[in-house]
């Protein structure tokens, strides 16, 4: 995987999937789903996102429902990575299966070293976050299989018949 370069969008603990993507934006229309990202939290955030931007948060990111619409909205907005102290397990699995890198801080106290709007470079292979000031923060290295899923762009991309529909 190539390093991810973007700005930090900073959140606290217990960011619920309904905050990530509110039910009012559930749709089959990709543009509507894209526009809903964090709409209830900060309606000005989504229009100001740039490809590669990184969401950084505290504990239990992605708690709540197991609907994949929050991950779909993250992916449609070209969020480069999610970094948190820890993730709700179902959210982590949904994000990973969809090729969205979810990394955790090796030392949870390092969350305090990251600031909103800061430009960072995330290297999923090296499990590091480098700030624009040249400071390096260690992340927990993901397992080989998880890295393969992220690098492929999602779990389905690893299947030999990925171009064929099941059914």
Notes on the protein architecture:
This protein has 167 residues and is α/β, with parallel strands linked by helices. It has one domain (4-158): Aconitase, domain 4 (Alpha-Beta Barrel). It contains six helices and seven strands. The chain has helices at residues 17-20, 30-35, 45-48, 69-76, 89-97, 144-152; strands at 4-10, 54-57, 81-84, 102-104, 119-123, 128-131, 136-138. A seven-stranded mixed sheet has the order 4-3-2-1-5-6-7. β6 (128-131) and β7 form a beta hairpin. It is globular, with a radius of gyration of 15 Å. The N and C termini lie far apart (32 Å).
Strand and helix map with partners:
Layout: E1 4-10, H1 17-20, H2 30-35, H3 45-48, E2 54-57, H4 69-76, E3 81-84, H5 89-97, E4 102-104, E5 119-123, E6 128-131, E7 136-138, H6 144-152
Parallel strand pairs: 1-2, 2-3, 3-4
Antiparallel strand pairs: 1-5, 5-6, 6-7
Let me know the average pLDDT: 94
The count of strands amounts to: 7
| Fourth CATH level, the homologous superfamily | Aconitase, domain 4
Head-to-tail CA distance between termini:
32 Å
Helix and strand element order: EHHHEHEHEEEEH
Describe this structure in a few short sentences.
This protein has 167 residues and is of the alpha/beta class. It has helices at 17-20, 30-35, 45-48, 69-76, 89-97, 144-152, and strands at residues 4-10, 54-57, 81-84, 102-104, 119-123, 128-131, 136-138.
